[in-house]
Specification:
The complex is a heterodimer of chains A (about 240) and B (about 260). Chain A is of the alpha/beta class and about 240 residues long. Chain A has helices at about 25-35, 70-75, 110-120, 125-135, 150-165, 180-195, 210-215, 235-244; strands spanning about 5-15, 40-55, 55-60, 85-90, 90-95, 170-175, 200-205, 220-225, 225-230. Chain A has a six-stranded mixed sheet with strand order 5-6-7-3-8-9, with helices on both faces. By secondary structure, chain B is mainly α. Helix content of chain B is about 80%, strand content about 0%. Classes of the chains: A alpha/beta (about 240), B mainly alpha (about 260). The interface between A and B is medium-sized, with 33 and 30 residues.
Chain lengths: ~240, ~260
């Protein structure tokens, strides 16, 4: 089982930090003529290399703006790195922002199908998982109500339920343990533990060092886009706290 | 080769998502309107009625079966404008999806084209109703309709992919394209006979792709003519050229989208 499930090879990500985005034609031509097409490089990630083995839980820590979320998005294949490559072997459930892709004008029933297909399920699969999703999110009462009438907690519950209804090979979590009320948070924790115990790989970003220590066995510390340290979660965490 | 294989695999994997996106468009469009889906039938009929009233009373053209003549042009042109206008916004509209989960991005413009296609089918039904009422004979050549629709689908999909890409990088595209389609509509023989252009602006007749599609369509609906091989080749080639350019442009630029939306 010592198999790599995620390989991040020398990944760098560059953004254009120029003061204004040139996104209209007139501006573009004026600047082209004046040779003012500002292009200020900003490297959100620089030469990041690491591997994750199947079944590991890995935590990514670092200050704001250290490139954690960018790294997650690259692993989730939402972004392509400027240089370097990422290989992911397995299905990914991204809990990056719950309910991305919900259409607020549609009901929960319709959104389950829309969001489910966004996550790569077939309609047949969703039909068979439909009751499980609604059971978990406890939204049977409101199933045919448009989502715009939901509270934000309810929307997040639905998002979490859809994303975690199947046990994925890799679960990517970006600081979402604050879903809904206390009772539902517990339920989320329980479900995440279930997924971890099923042998799934976890990539977890958090500012809560306690959560990282509790959930992860390895940690990566990022600072300004570079890996400062990686290794055993408790060692990295204590170093991180000492330094910052 | 692997890339093409991957594309087909991706298309197969996400075909349900495509269906859901198309369904969403249709559901949202008629949500909370009393007549709902009936509007897809009613809308083109009402349009035609207005145009027929205007043009048979105010401006007279010597056109036989004006309602159906208008309908055939209007049908195809509306499909063009509707799908390209919605396709143009499709990528930036779905920015919050694109930023958070991985999905093939071409699904957005393609889903817009297909949901306009559904509308087109309803308009086609409306047209057959009008043909019944105005006693225009049904010719066997009407069976060629799917052929012209496939040619047009290629053209429109390609154009939508190009416009969606442009719109991501230059937000002026939408405004420019609005004006452009207005001119395009007036330069297409939808409610006037194409002879009118022949005299004054023959070059438009040659350069305007919609002219070929619409005259093909009129041949099979109104004139009971099986379009010539030449017509078929022109329509197919225009469609393919735009489709291929659209695909190439979109694929080359799609990884940059996320930095601009």
């Amino acid at each position: 089982m010592e198999q790599n499930i995620i390989e991040v090879n020398n990944v760098s990500m560059m953004f254009n930090k120029s003061k204004e985005h040139v996104d209209n034609l007139k501006e573009y031509f004026i600047r082209l003529v004046k040779h003012q097409l500002l292009f200020e490089e900003f490297w959100a990630l620089k030469n990041v290399t690491f591997e994750v083995k199947r079944g590991e839980a890995i935590g990514i820590i670092g200050l704001n703006g250290s490139g954690k979320s960018t790294l997650l998005k690259i692993i989730a294949q939402v972004m392509k790195p400027t240089t370097g490559s990422v290989n992911v072997y397995g299905s990914v459930a991204p809990l990056i922002e719950l309910g991305a892709g919900f259409d607020l004008n549609l009901s929960a029933r319709e959104n389950i199908f829309l969001n489910g297909t966004v996550l790569g399920y077939s309609r047949k699969q969703i039909r068979s998982l439909f009751e499980k999703i609604l059971d978990f999110s406890e939204l049977w009462e409101f199933v045919d109500l448009p989502l715009k009438n939901y509270s934000s907690g309810m929307v997040a519950r639905l998002g979490f339920a859809i994303a975690t209804v199947n046990t994925p090979d890799i679960l990517i979590v970006d600081e979402i343990l604050g879903v809904g009320d206390h009772k539902f948070q517990e339920k989320c924790h329980k479900r995440m533990n279930e997924i971890i115990n099923s042998g799934a790989t976890i990539v977890f970003v958090s500012h809560s060092i306690d959560d990282v220590k509790r959930l992860c066995n390895r940690a990566i510390w990022l600072n300004k886009g570079m890996i400062v340290m990686q290794g055993d979660a408790s060692t990295v965490c204590s170093q991180y706290i000492m330094q910052s | 080769m692997i890339k093409i294989k991957g594309m087909f695999y991706g298309f197969f994997k996400y075909k349900d998502l495509l269906a859901e996106l198309v369904l969403r468009d249709i559901k949202i469009r008629y949500r909370r309107s009393v007549l709902g889906i009936v509007w897809t039938l009613l809308n083109p009929i009402l349009m035609m009625t207005v145009m027929t009233l205007v043009f048979s009373n105010l401006f007279r053209f010597d056109i036989k079966n004006f309602p159906v003549y208008f309908f055939t042009g209007h049908l195809l042109f509306t499909f063009l404008t509707e799908s390209t206008n919605t396709g143009l916004y499709s990528v930036i509209e779905n920015s919050n999806l694109i930023k958070k989960v991985y999905i093939p991005k071409y699904l957005f413009p393609v889903s817009k084209v297909l949901s306009s296609g559904v509308n087109l089918i309803f308009s086609f039904i409306a047209m057959t109703l009008v043909m019944l009422v105005t006693k225009v004979p049904f010719n066997i050549t009407i069976l060629l309709t799917p052929v012209i629709l496939i040619y047009l689908l290629l053209f429109v999909t390609g154009l939508s992919l190009i416009l969606a890409t442009l719109q991501v990088f230059f937000r002026d595209t939408a405004h420019l394209y609005n004006v452009f389609t207005l001119a395009w509509m007036y330069l297409t023989p939808i409610f006037y006979p194409s002879v009118l252009l022949e005299e004054k602006l023959n070059v438009v007749l040659i350069l305007n792709p919609m002219v070929y599609y619409i005259s093909y369509f009129r041949d099979i609906i109104l004139n009971n003519i099986v379009p010539s091989l030449e017509q078929n080749i022109i329509c197919l080639v225009i469609g393919l050229i735009f489709f291929i350019i659209g695909l190439v442009v979109f694929y080359k630029k799609q990884d940059k989208f996320i930095l601009y939306i």
